[in-house]
Design goal:
Layout: H1 2-45, H2 50-75
Helix pairs in contact: 1-2
Length: about 80
């Protein structure tokens, strides 16, 4: 009985690890897509324009927030 419970726990853990890896890959892909879109916008607006600078700062703040959230969720 104890071995069966232990195996079930291990199976649940493996599924959670696989799910986390898949979620991480999806997040990284979404970030990559967003970065490409931002680069296109900045390029179209002109690299030195006020809006480009604001967009870039907003992007950096958003990425920092996402990284902090990701680190927090991994530590729980």
């Amino acid at each position: 009985m104890l071995l069966q419970i232990e195996q079930e726990c291990l199976d649940v853990y493996k599924r959670k690890v696989e799910q986390a890896a898949k979620s991480r890959a999806q997040l990284l892909q979404a970030l990559s897509d967003a970065k490409l879109e931002l680069s296109s916008l900045v390029s179209a607006l002109g690299d030195k324009s006020f809006i480009s600078i604001v967009l870039r700062r907003h992007w950096e703040q958003s990425m920092n927030n996402l990284l902090l959230l990701h680190q927090h969720s991994n530590s729980c």
